[in-house]
Amino acid sequence: MSTPMDHDAADRIGAAAERDPDSATAQSGFDDRAAAAADRNDPSWYDGYDYE
Length: 52
Description:
By secondary structure, this protein is mainly α. It is 58% helix and 0% strand. The protein has helices at 7-19, 24-28, 30-41.
């Protein structure tokens, strides 16, 4: 079982992408997907709609 994405992890991924915009993480859009996953996993934010 994997660990659900949370906002702390998504923030670290986003910061890494900002530090190196030419990295695979930044180029692939993984930072944006991580942020979206963290939002979906946060019950205080999630409104039940799948935005993808």
